Amino acid sequence: MDNPMRRFFSAIFLSLVITAFGVTNVSAQQTSVSPNLEELSHAKVKKKETSMYADFFDKNVYDRGVQWFYIPRVFRKMFNLKKPSVNANVYDELPDSTFFTNRIGRKDMTAEEIVKGPEVTTGPETTGPWTIVKGKFEGITPGFFIKDAKGNEYLLKFDPPGYAELSSGAEAIASRMMYALGYNVPQYTVVYFDPSILTVWEHATYYAKSGFNRPLTMEKVTEALKDINRTPDGKLRASASLKVGGILKGPMSFNSFRKEDPNDYFRHRNHREIKALIVFASWLNNHDLRKGNTLDTWIDDGKGGGYLKHYLIDFGSSFGSAGDRPKDPTFTFEYFLDYKDVAYQTATLGVFEPDWKKRWETNHKTFRFPSAGNFDNLYFRPENWKPEIPHYAFDDMTLGDAFWAAKIIMKLKPEALKEIMAVGQYSDKDVEKYIYDILTERQKMIGQYWFGRVTPLDEFELKSLGGGKAEFSFKDLEVFYNLSNAAPSYRYRVVTHNKKGKEKVYQGDTNFSGSPLELDLVSFKSLGKFDVVIEKLNSNTGKWNPPVILTVSSDTSGDGFVLAGIWHADKVKK
Questions:
Q1: Sheet (strand 529-536) strand order
Q2: Which helix (H) or strand (E) holds 529?
């Protein structure tokens, strides 16, 4: 079991090594080469590199230290202020972009569509031969870049010894879920094959422990596969990820933008889909959120230009898997280097048990299925869930960002989720049910928590009734998904704001019971534009939640009104 203090001092030593030797290693998806394809490049967009060690140092050591010298960030921390996401539109939604595509968030997807996901092929052609063009031997389990008989290139990754189906099943399922939620992901397929179909390209290499590329031989391949789990008929099981299209440009930063990319306007830490990624990750229990698990590709438009497409990759650390082993007890409860936890444990002399330890003891220091790993909802709290390393973007997530993510998560129907479980190809169907049950329960927990922090109203429509009257209809997502037993109670007020943002109230707080809300707005028509501020009473605290603000404009062509904007606020106006 990991000890936080031991991790702390180990991390400091590791950071010094990184600084001294400048360790770098390109992410797995970035290093694919082909015996028949020339490696392309683009003059305007430089190819970047990173490594697990660099990611660790940047986020755990450097960023955590220098943030206290950045006055605006210190000020926001002192007063708990959050910067609104720069790419949410006036209706508090996220337009499609090279980072994110509205899929299930905009329209229903059938179970068949979700199961298919980003599928381009049905996976590697298993009759062979497969030509290994590069070896990947970092970590506990080996991997290979292969080219199948149809000419398609894949990265093969294997389950850790003794834990058959653990990471490959998690990757197949989680990647399709992330695709449905809206992110760009590669195609992942669980594949079984006879190792006799493997051959080695004459120019194939692998990255040796000495720090240099070495020629790859069939003997080295055989040695690497000797401890890999096998089926009763001697076959190997792997996760096969199809090489993505375009020119590979290395990882994407969760913090800054690429200045050479003309479509990249804002710092990534201010993007909603980056800030709210932690909410999606908490559902999938994917703790390995870092630069090395992203990928940018240059897509040529055929007219001398193009654009960068931004991918999330490597989902083998989802659910109860850590990729090369089951999740450690501390994962998702603490950062790898968690200063706050170290300080707390030191100050209290370890008297108070952290949640991860109570969970580990309750589970008798084990887990139910080796192929499901360390995964349950015991002591799971959406607001406290942590990835392995911290990011500014996650710190800056607003309630509006979290509400947006939670409502997309709730749109993935349980019956569709049950169908997705089959792509994990678990030999024990009880594992499918186990993971499914945890995900559906966690889905509800995420919805309950984030919808309970805001005024969770969505799908607004404004209908002009004539004579200066208007009707607002909406859906209360907390009620729609049956996440609260309390009868809902709301209030509204009509306001405008001066240039300094100070609120001027034209109609004070008025209680109402639900949708539709009919208002007589004739006396406000001369204002041209005004806000209808709606708040919901929190049945647990007895206080009003932060409001949803509807900006209304007078329709110049008649006596009606137009809904000009929607915004879910972070704080209650006092």
A1: 503-512, 490-497, 529-536, 548-554, 561-568
A2: strand 529-536
8 A C-beta contact, residue 426 and residue 169: yes
Show contacts of 475-481: CB within 8 Å, 24+ apart. 475/515, 476/514, 476/515, 476/536, 477/407, 477/410, 477/447, 477/451, 478/447, 478/448, 478/451, 478/452, 478/536, 481/410, 481/444, 481/447, 481/451
Residue 436 phi/psi, 5-degree rounding, is -60, -45
Asked, as a colleague might, if the bond just before 329 is cis with ω within 30 of 0, I would say no
How far separated are the first and last CA of the chain, in Å rounded? 47
Q: Which of 242, 269, 235 is nearest to 175 (CA)?
A: 242
Domains of the chain in start order, with CATH, are 113-245 (no CATH), 457-568 (2.60.40.10)
Q: Which residues contact 301 (CB under 8 A, 6 or more apart)?
A: 307
Q: pLDDT tens string for the chain (574 positions)? A: 445 444 444 444 444 444 433 333 333 444 444 443 333 334 556 666 666 677 777 777 777 777 777 777 777 777 778 889 999 999 999 999 999 999 999 999 999 999 999 999 999 999 999 999 999 876 567 899 999 999 999 999 999 999 999 999 999 999 999 999 999 999 999 999 999 999 999 999 998 776 678 999 999 999 999 999 999 999 999 999 999 999 899 999 999 888 877 778 899 999 999 999 999 999 999 999 999 999 999 988 777 778 899 999 999 999 999 999 999 999 999 998 888 888 878 888 778 899 999 999 999 999 999 999 999 999 999 999 999 999 999 999 999 999 999 999 999 999 999 999 999 999 999 999 999 999 999 999 999 999 999 999 999 999 999 888 999 999 999 999 999 999 999 999 999 987 777 888 999 999 999 999 999 999 998 898 999 999 999 999 999 999 999 999 998 777 789 999 999 999 876 5
How far is the CA of 565 from the CAs of 36, 40, 88, 121, in angstroms? 53, 44, 11, 42
> Look-up: residue for tokens 């980072």?
99
Q: Are 256 and 268 in contact (CB under 8 A)?
A: yes
Q: Do the Cβ atoms of 473 and 405 come closer than 8 Å? A: no
Residues 556, 464: Cα–Cα separation, whole Å? 13
Rounded to 5°, the CA angle 527-531-537 comes to 150
Q: What angle do CA 489, 565, 569 make, to 5 degrees?
A: 50
